[in-house]
Amino acid sequence: MRLIIQIPCYNEAETLAIALxxxxxxxxxxxxxxxxxxxxGSQDDTVRVAKECGVDYVVxxxxxxxxxxxxxxxxxxxxxxxxxxxxxxDADNQYCADxxxxxxxxxxxxxxxxxxxxxxxxxxEHFSPVKKILQKLGSWVVRLxxxxxxxxxxxxxxxxSRETAQKLIVFNDYTYTLETIIQAGQKNISLASxxxxxxxxxxxxxxxxxxxxxxxxxxxxxxxxxxVYRPFREGANK
Length: 238
Description:
single chain; 7 strands; 238 residues; alpha/beta; 8 helices; Nucleotide-diphossugar_trans
C-alpha cells in the first residue's frame, strides 16, 4: 500500500519547511509514504524549499490557477504515481500531522472511502466569529446537498482512496472542500469524519485577503452549491 501526502502551495517558502518536517515517513498499513507538492505558480522559493526538505515529487503550474485547480492537479499526479490512498494537507502547518494515522484509519479498515478531519472550530482562537459562523453554514449546506453528516466540510485535511480520487471533478475555481464532499455523497462514496487537532496560526489564510472578501466568496460558493446541486431537491441523492 502506497500513501502520498499532497500539499497545494502558492508562495509558501516561509512555512513549508515547518509543515514538511512534521509529516510522517512511516504510517501503519502502508509500505511507502511519499510527499507531493503542487506549486501553483509560486514567485518565491517554495520549490527550492520543497526539494531541500526531500519532497519526492513537485508538480508546477505555469501560473497561479487557484487552490481548487492545484488540488485537482495534485490528485491527478498522485494517481499517476500509483497512490493507493491520498492525504491532502496545507502548507501553513494548520493541521496536526500526527493525526494522519487517525485520518487514514477508516479507509484502511474499509469503513470509508473519504475521511474529513474535523477541527475544533468553536475553540480556534485565530478564527473570527464571522468565519466560524460561515464555516458552520457551509458545513450545513454541504450536509443537505450530500446527505451526509460531515460536521466540518471546509476542512482541507482529508484522506481518500484511489478509487474516490478517480471520481472527483471540481468545477469551483475558489475551493475544492465543499464540492468534493457533495460529489462524494451524490456518487454514493462512503464518507467519515474524525476529530483532529490544529496548530498555532503561522500566517493569515491565503484565501482570505479581508473579512469582506471571505464573506463574499463564501456566500458565492454556497449559492453555487444551491444552484448546481440543489440540496433541497426531493430525491437529490437517489
